[in-house]
Amino acid sequence: MEARRSVAVVVVRGAPPEFLVLRRVPARGGGWQPVTGRLEPGEEPVDAAAREVREETGCEPLAVVDLGLDAEFTGFDGHRYRERAFLAEAPDGAEATTGAEHDAAEWLAIDEALARLTWEENRAALQAAARVLAEVPSRRRQS
């Protein structure tokens, strides 16, 4: 069976950076993660990343960067997934809303976010995002 395609999106705001972590509702496997979601038919991964940030958090991403990192795993639903990781920058002071999939959202410093995340694939994505942020700071942070 072919793996379903999905995205994991590390959302960051401010300087020093704060990373968004979401707690999945128990019916969806529980655990803490970044924004995640499946691609819609014909959708490009970068477009799915931006859409998922809007849908799951209510935040409008200012920029979305492909981290060049893929993970394969079996989801809580028993399906195989191939997930591409992205970094999305949210406006300074952005607040995240939760919906049917999550029951909590927190903005955390990197060490706290890494400790909170449940799955290793998500920690790898967050670490990759932090490396990109260190190498290429936001244009808004340079002003």
Keywords:
143 residues, alpha+beta, Nucleoside Triphosphate Pyrophosphohydrolase, seven-stranded mixed beta sheet, 3 helices, 25% helix, 36% strand, globular, disordered C terminus
3D shape: globular
Q: What structural category do the secondary elements indicate?
A: alpha+beta
What is the count of distinct domains? Answer: 1
SS summary, helix count: 3
Contiguous low-pLDDT stretches (5 residues minimum) are 139-143
Summarize the helices and strands and which ones pair or pack.
Elements: E1 4-13, E2 18-24, E3 32-33, E4 35-38, H1 45-57, E5 63-74, E6 80-89, E7 102-108, H2 110-116, H3 120-135
Parallel strand pairs: 1-6
Antiparallel strand pairs: 1-2, 1-4, 2-3, 2-7, 5-6
Helix pairs in contact: 2-3
Describe this structure in words.
- With 143 residues, the chain is an alpha+beta fold.
- The protein has a single domain, classed as Alpha-Beta Complex (Nucleoside Triphosphate Pyrophosphohydrolase), CATH 3.90.79.
- The chain has 3 helices and 7 strands.
- Strands 1, 2, 3, 4, 5, 6 and 7 form a 7-stranded mixed β-sheet that branches.
- Strand 5 and strand 6 form a beta hairpin.
- The termini are far apart.
Offer a quick outline of the entry:
By secondary structure, this protein is of the alpha+beta class.
